[in-house]
Amino acid sequence: MALSGLFFIAFVLGHMYGNLKAFAGQDSFNEYAEHLREYGQPILPYSGLLWIVRVGLVGSLAVHVYAALTLWARAKRARTTPYVMKKRTGATWASLIMRWGGVTLLLFIAWHLLNFSFGKVNVTGGPTNDPYILLVDTFATWWLTVIYLVAMAALGAHLHHGFWSACQTLGLTGSARSRSLAKGVGLTLALVIVVGFSLVPLGVLVGIIEK
Ligand code: HEM
After folding, report:
1. Were 203 and a residue from 58, 86, 129, 209 both cysteine, which residue would form a disulfide, CB within 3.0 to 4.6 Å?
2. Residue 57 contacts by C-beta under 8 Å, 6 or more apart in sequence?
């Protein structure tokens, strides 16, 4: 779970950086989208690197979800009678955020791929063959912007706790210093990713990114 999670973090950081090209305008964003497909040529075929990343993502997702379901079932078996104490402790909040946040992210990713990758759904009825226009049309639709911003908040919370958890799993939290470092890095990563991703929908909302 830790290793697949770290792979996702690397992917979202790269993806977030690429999305920010939208601030440089239509040509820059679309050129970047095209470069993703040409990268590695002629050693790799057109879209070759993209397919390698896609296969890595699908494999990591399968591992991540399988591990989550196994943990969920194990936690259920370990405690068959409910706790008498009603007050929530930090640990139960964290597990709620990880479980339901994870399910929210799965639903978001399914919609997101339908929206931008495999489906290319333009809810305004506009063109779907121009990545930049599809992006602007998507976030010019207020309820889609809300969905994306809520999903980014869920991603931030998931990542914040997930990074800490991964460090624990990998045995990197043995001392007080390493624990506070892991917490600090997790929080910084989560903030950078939430703000970085949210800037694009917000940029469309305030009219900085436009057709
Ligand atoms: C505001 C947030 C986001 C925006 C504006 C955004 C935008 C985009 C766009 C424009 C594409 C199509 C790229 C292309 O075909 O060249 C794309 C693809 C994709 N995005 Fe996002 N994205 C966002 C957040 C995320 C997040 C949080 C994840 C993962 C957790 C994610 C995962 C993906 C994946 C897996 C693809 C498919 C890449 C492929 O076609 O192989 N995105 N996104």
Report:
1. 209
2. 7, 8, 11
What is the whole-number distance in angstroms between the Cα of residue 190 and the centre of ligand 1? 17
How far is the C-alpha of 192 from the C-alpha of 113, rounded, in Å?
A: 22
**132 token code pair:** 């930049």
Residues 6+ apart with CB under 8 A from 127: 133, 134
Ligand 1 neighbour 155 (Cβ under 6 A): yes
Distance, in Å, from the CA atom of 41 to the CA atom of 38, rounded to the nearest integer, reads 6
Q: Identify the CA nearest to 67 among candidates 115, 26, 102, 23.
A: 102
Burial category of 12 from C-beta neighbours within 10 Å (exposed 0-12, middle 13-18, buried 19 and up):
middle
What are 89-130's pLDDT values in tens digits? 667 677 788 999 999 999 999 999 999 999 999 999 999 999
Give the whole-angstrom CA distance, residue 120 versus residue 128: 6
Helix or strand or coil: residue 32?
Answer: helix
Closest alpha carbon to 57 in 25, 11, 103, 95: 11
Question: Of 101, 143, 137, which Cα lies nearest the Cα of 116?
Answer: 137
The pTM (predicted TM-score) of the whole model is 0.92
Which secondary structure element, helix H or strand E, spans residue 54, and what is its range? helix 48-78
166 lines ligand 1 (CB under 6 A): no
C-alpha atoms less than 13 angstroms from C-alpha of 19 in its C-beta half-sphere: 23
137 and 201 in contact (C-beta within 8 Å)? Answer: no
